[in-house]
Design a protein that fits this description.
The chain has ten helices and eight strands. The protein has about 260 residues and is α/β, with parallel strands linked by helices. The structure holds D-malate.
């Protein structure tokens, strides 16, 4: 369905029935990156909410240049969908950065966190400069700049040619203005390391064993920093573990979600 939020037309897939779970996609992807996981969660009795972040997928609106804009959109979306109270947030990579921002702003809307192939640290100066230069190139030359640069880093060697091609095509199709905006937003994100000890909800940290973008070392920092967090390393997966090993990722999420969600105060 499409809903108007903060001047954007947000597309959100609402699938299944049961207790709600929010899935937040990464960069420069869309809600479709969650398709195989969503099917399993729906079969497992969950109502899955999968938005396209502003400017990505079927969502339109002025591109975000701060991650907080995505958070504001998501909180508005939950209100519009009458999802009151707290629910589990699953954030993949940039979606994890957004989840940290949401935790700082509205922890009462988060009952559990699954952080998938993401990291707490901010960009260093070189990474920031790289993102800024890439954003300018994307505005001139299109999203294939990012698609071509990211493709070799996204997968474990076992990933099929057809998956690589489909993911490349989806990145090329991303709107250049949204891609450039998100690059600037990620470059400007704060260090979330000080946030980690404040996270009081049950947390699952998941990472592809061969993730070259947010490597297992980053996941260990998350799992060690968040009190009581569990770490799952997904075999034969790179950064795109939800697409490379959907069964393993979905089963880990189902097991995590099945446990009673109790805040640890
Ligand atoms: C993502 O998958 O969301 C991005 O690779 C994250 C990043 O570039 O930091």
């Amino acid at each position: 369905m499409d809903v108007s939020i903060e001047g954007a037309r947000m597309h959100v897939a609402v699938l299944g029935a049961g207790s709600p779970v929010l899935l937040v996609h990464g960069f420069p992807f869309s809600s479709s990156m969650w398709d195989p996981i969503a099917r399993r969660l729906v079969e497992g009795g969950y109502k899955v909410l999968i938005p396209d972040l502003r400017g990505f997928g079927k969502s339109t609106g002025v591109p975000a240049t701060a991650l907080g804009t995505f958070t504001t959109d998501l909180l508005g979306l939950l209100d519009t969908l009458w999802v009151t109270g707290a629910l589990p947030w699953v954030g993949f990579s940039m979606g994890g950065y957004v989840a940290f921002d949401a935790w700082r702003r509205r922890p009462n809307r988060i009952s559990a966190l699954a952080l998938v192939d993401t990291r707490a640290g901010a960009d260093d100066d070189a990474a920031r400069a790289g993102r800024s230069a890439t954003a300018a190139r994307v505005e001139r030359e299109g999203s294939s700049v990012v698609a071509d640069a990211m493709l070799p880093k996204l997968f474990a060697p076992a990933a099929s040619a057809s998956l690589r091609q489909a993911v490349h095509a989806s990145m090329v199709a991303a709107a250049p203005a949204a891609v450039a905006g998100a690059l600037r937003a990620m470059a400007a994100r704060p260090d979330s390391t000080p946030t980690l000890p404040t996270i009081k909800v049950r947390t699952l940290v998941m990472v592809g064993a061969e993730d070259a973008i947010t490597p297992p070392g980053d996941a260990e920092v998350l799992a060690q920093g968040i009190p009581g967090a569990r770490l799952r390393v997904v075999k034969d997966a790179g950064h795109l573990s939800p697409l490379e090993q959907p069964s393993a990722v979905a089963e880990a999420l189902l097991e995590f979600l099945a446990n009673p969600v109790k805040p640890r105060r």
